[in-house]
């Protein structure tokens, strides 16, 4: 049978960012240096394919550092951790390796700087996300107020509205965050913001690329995990930009083929913690059912590279 034609618009940049690459390299380098097992607090990045691959090499993922044997190496995930975590790890004599993305660490330092300057900090982010928990854990309890929505921004009542600053989670929707910031600036004209936006370059670029393709697509597939904030945001961005049929899939096995009924042009992107191999598998699955043509749509070139911790550098 003749396969129906399908145009594939491949967004670029997509997939792994420099912070994710660095975090995975830290675990792999620790395994090379110390030998297995190497312990990792929480998922190193939000992708089961990546996590299971590292488990196969000897990484053991734990919820808290008290599960790690005394003296063993432990890696902190790319999302960052509260200050109490490395303090407890050091107390127990663990070998600590910090895989926190440097752009998340930048937000941590901003929070400290504002707090030292006497400003109450408003954090725009999602409750329960490990990055938010890590950022809030940089300061004493009550020093940071979480703002999740425009409604929160309208309703919040800080004790000293003349001494405020805001910071943001790095993986938010750029457009939604701008709307929240606009409310805060209207309500609190003296509020201080970051010198450079906290939403990271990778999140911004991937959202730009999705916006670039959606107007030409009948359907958009975002490859990534459901607990990956930046992947979920890409689906939201696609829908908000005019493509109501957009789905998040962990890989080719999750594709709803019935949703392709009538589709002639599909857009594909991937969250910053999704490896390129998963994108390749999705394209192979499409090619098995359709006569595909592929067009890559690029909006930026990414050349950022983050160094490994000194303890792991050759």
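^ Assign residues to that structure.
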């Amino acid at each position: 049978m003749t396969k129906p034609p399908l145009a594939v618009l491949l967004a670029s940049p997509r997939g792994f960012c420099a912070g994710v690459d660095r975090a995975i390299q830290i675990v792999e380098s620790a395994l090379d240096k110390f030998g297995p097992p190497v312990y990792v607090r929480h998922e190193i990045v939000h992708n089961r394919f990546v996590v299971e691959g590292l488990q196969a090499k000897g990484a053991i993922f734990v919820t808290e550092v008290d599960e790690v044997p005394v003296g063993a190496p432990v890696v902190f995930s790319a999302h960052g951790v509260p200050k109490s975590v490395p303090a407890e790890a050091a107390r127990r004599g663990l070998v600590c390796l910090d895989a926190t993305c440097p752009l998340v660490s930048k937000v941590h330092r901003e929070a400290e700087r504002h707090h030292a300057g006497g400003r109450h900090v408003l954090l725009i982010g999602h409750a329960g996300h490990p990055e938010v928990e890590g950022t809030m854990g940089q300061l004493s309890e009550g020093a940071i107020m979480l703002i999740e929505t425009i409604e929160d921004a309208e309703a919040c009542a800080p004790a000293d509205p003349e001494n405020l600053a805001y910071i943001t989670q790095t993986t938010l929707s750029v457009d939604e965050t701008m709307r929240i910031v606009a409310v805060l600036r209207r309500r609190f004209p003296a509020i201080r913001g970051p010198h450079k936006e906290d939403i990271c370059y990778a999140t911004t670029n991937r959202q730009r690329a999705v916006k670039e393709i959606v107007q030409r697509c009948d359907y958009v597939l975002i490859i990534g995990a459901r607990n990956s904030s930046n992947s979920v945001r890409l689906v939201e961005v696609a829908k908000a930009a005019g493509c109501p049929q957009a789905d998040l899939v962990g890989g080719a096995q999750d594709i709803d083929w019935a949703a392709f009924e009538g589709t002639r042009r599909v857009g594909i992107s991937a969250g910053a913690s999704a490896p390129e191999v998963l994108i390749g598998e999705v394209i192979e699955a499409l090619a098995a059912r359709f006569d595909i043509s592929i067009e890559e749509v690029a909006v930026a070139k990414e050349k950022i590279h983050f160094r490994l911790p000194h303890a792991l550098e050759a």
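The radius of gyration is 21 Å.
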